[in-house]
Amino acid sequence: MKLNLIQCHPDPRRLAAWATRFGLTAGGDDLGYALHTLLSAAFGDAAPKPFRYFDDSRGLLAYSAHDAEALQLAAQMAAPDVHATLGMGRFASRSFPTDWTSGRRLGFEVRARPVLRTNAGRERDVFQVAAEKVGVGEFDQSRETIYGEWLARELGRGDAAHIDSLRLDAFRLSASLRKGSAVNGKRPAQRVAGPDALLVGELTVRDPAGFSALLTRGVGRHRAFGFGMLLLRPPTAC
Predict the structure, then answer these.
(1) Is 76 in the same domain as 155?
(2) DSSP letter at 83?
(3) Is residue 29 domain-shared with residue 109, that is, in the same domain?
(4) To 5 degrees, how large is the angle CA 69–CA 61–CA 3?
(5) What is the residue-averaged pLDDT of the chain?
(6) I need a surface site. Which of 35, 44, 136, 159 has the fewest CB within 10 A?
(7) Is residue 59 a part of any domain in this protein?
(8) pLDDT in tens, 24-77
(9) What gap in Å lies between CA 98 and CA 208, rounded to an integer?
(10) Best CA proximity match to 14, nearest among 80, 107, 78, 68
(11) Which of 4, 9, 5, 85 has the alpha carbon at shortest distance from 42?
């Protein structure tokens, strides 16, 4: 399995104008859907995910199974406004580790959408679900604790990794657009609101292959819309 970390620098003003022109932000305060559409317009089936967009000098980071040459080739047919809006003039890529060792400690950061999908197809904040099970008046656990348990389950699938420490670094409710259910053969966009959490901590790799697959796939839902990219860093020195 090959994995590459790519970076480009979307132009904020062009991005806002492009998203508005195509109605990709109506009713939402998050640019995830607009960026998803922009990446698809630039790279087609090779559009990278998961990705994380920073409205600063870091730009957009993403993981991709495709190398820089393949992505540049895919983007050659992109419209000029797409190419300029995505900032392909400053496109960069490098290979990312895939050969992990069991017991390796790493720092991490992930922007996540900690939700559960109900049988009716709705998404519920896992914190609200936990509170309702106990009763609001008797519930004494923090949002950080509940989100930490949710993330531990996500990272523990296939025993990929174990969380050693975690903190909820930021939280807000954000709204964005998503494709709704098909109506007359079309899937109109609809406004979806939910938890938007920045989780930071340290982990230990347990299953190297499973951990590599987790990086490639991303964490939780809405991975194609700016959530779920597990960013790694060296662990804090003991």
Answers:
(1) no
(2) H
(3) no
(4) 50
(5) 88
(6) 136
(7) yes
(8) 765 556 788 889 989 999 999 899 999 999 988 899 999 999 988 888 888 888
(9) 8
(10) 80
(11) 85
